[in-house]
Amino acid sequence: MGLFSPITIRGLTIKNRIVVSPMCMYSSEDGFANDWHLVHLGSRAVGGAGLIFTEATAVEPRGRISPVDLGIWKDEHIDALRRVVDFCHSFGAKMGIQLAHAGRKAEDYPPWERDGMKIKGSKHAIAPSAVPYGADWHTPKEMTEEDMQSVQKAFEDAAKRAVEAGFDVIEVHAAHGYLIHEFLSPISNKRTDQYGGSIENRERFLVDVVRRVRKVIPDSMPLFVRISCVDHIEGGWTLEDSIHLAKRLKDEGCDVIDCSSGGIVEDEKVNAYPGFQVPYAERIKKEVGIMTMCVGLITTYEQAQEIVMNSRADLVAMAREFLRDPYLPMRWAKTHWLKPEVPRQYIRAWL
Ligand SMILES: Cc1cc2nc3c(=O)[nH]c(=O)nc-3n(C[C@H](O)[C@H](O)[C@H](O)COP(=O)(O)O)c2cc1C
């Protein structure tokens, strides 16, 4: 057991517990994967990561965090994604896709064109309620029953395409203040129908999405859900709520809860320090009896190994440290006298 030991989830065995966390790359045109994604994700496969997630990949165009996000809303997207997946597979990495809808945090402009704009966000944004993300954001349109059905269908179709592209894992993005989180949190969900009010009702949209996705992917395929375990704000979503939700998701065939936090309001205050989100993963794992993945300010081998060895989480995801060093797993293995898995092209680095 340890960071470099394999893990099996349903029919999938991942060679180690080190995961590349989803990261927006702002590099797509019309949602298509291209050479950037091949090089960016591919180099992390060469570097020895066990599981690599794509960035938040939009299930419909108006659900993009920016207009230059990756997408999977049409069949034409599949081939370009498959090229990336096949390359990463050839270096022993498993591939996950994060299916996402930005809800009221959708944006019409890429980050580098937003400076000086008076109103942020997208004119076309939809959300559970007509409540803007921040004071100077577009007010989203409140979703009708028809909108909800069509977005759920978009998640389902996206999952089918992801299977066709060869992905090993699907992750539903229900964190960071995006659409599904907006349904979960009482801060952004003011609905009075069966999708608002009680916690069961606020969880319904996510449960419906998970049910639809689970139905169209193979039984052997793991399903992850990323949640914001807490809103970091008075009157918001809590860790107790996350435990309630995780129990329900487990019953619906979700295999791993990916434990992040925050993102529901613009002016949140987060007390972030190394490993600050690990206790969420630990508590959900212990109380619900479901596998968890932790993330957030994890940068060292010692931190990651401690988490796995003490069974605080099953998988350790990293984002920024992987931007700094795509070969992190290889380097850690070498530094700690483990036998690193090295692509034959790079074998001399270890001789
Ligand atoms: C450049 C960048 C892009 C990100 N994009 C996403 C994303 O698409 N989906 C997501 O769930 N989180 C996203 N995140 C959050 C990371 O996945 C991760 O949860 C967060 O950065 C904390 O981990 P770290 O301390 O290892 O960076 C992004 C983070 C960074 C730095």
TrEMBL record:
Signal peptide stretch: none
Keyword tags: Flavoprotein, FMN, NADP, Oxidoreductase
Domain named NADH:flavin oxidoreductase/NADH oxidase N-terminal: residues: 3-334
Any matching Pfam family: Oxidored_FMN
Essential cofactor(s): FMN
InterPro entries listed in its UniProt record: Aldolase_TIM (IPR013785), OxRdtase_FMN_N (IPR001155), YqjM-like (IPR044152)
Record-level Gene Ontology MF annotations: FMN binding; NADP binding; NADPH dehydrogenase activity
Protein name: NADH:flavin oxidoreductase/NADH oxidase
